[in-house]
Amino acid sequence: MKWHRSIGKISFLLVPLIVAGGLNMVHSMMIAKASYPPQVPYQLAFIDFFTLAIFILFFALAMVHRKNVQLHARYMVCTALGPLIPALTRLLFLIPGIDSFNKSLNTSYVLIELVLLFLLLDDKRSGKIRSPYIIALMLFITQHGMMNFAKEWEWWRIAMDSFSSL
């Protein structure tokens, strides 16, 4: 428990660095958007901003509920799910039939959503469904649906072009 608490204290330094690194990655990508397929940087920027926002949300909720082991642990699990999507997206290209970025990306979201459904079923089997996985599932489904349209939103493209000029 002593190690866990020490790592927990260090996380208050690491999380802002992770968020700053993520924002820097988005900024760099938007500056270099000409080297990407058309509109893809806007879609990726949406995914990254949304993922960073839910990462911060789940970390904050985990800290708020740090004395409730069941909620704290579940919220911490949720912090790891968003960052898994880019890794899954790359890995899925190894599977026959997943031959495009959009197929791979959408399949990654479906896999994360299935994991959350299984975690909810496990909670139900153990006798009590807790809110973290429900919140995560709703947010990932929302992100999944919206990310396919974000690159078409004029207001988003303007916001990201402004962000790249910072």
Structural commentary:
The radius of gyration is 17 Å and the shape is globular. The chain has one domain. It has six helices and no strands. With 166 residues, the chain is mainly alpha-helical. The protein has helices spanning 2-31, 40-64, 69-92, 101-125, 131-147, 154-164. 80% of the residues lie in helices and 0% in strands.
Beta-strand content estimate: under 5%
- The total number of structural domains is 1
The helix-and-strand class reads: mainly alpha
What level of helicity do the residues show?
over 70%
Shape: globular
Low-pLDDT runs of 5+ residues are: none
Radius of gyration using CA atoms only = 17 Å
Question: Topology of this structure?
Answer:
Blueprint: H1 2-31, H2 40-64, H3 69-92, H4 101-125, H5 131-147, H6 154-164
Helix pairs in contact: 1-2, 1-6, 2-3, 2-5, 3-4, 3-5, 4-5
Quick tags:
mainly alpha; single chain; 166 residues
Short summary:
The chain is an all-alpha fold and 166 residues long.
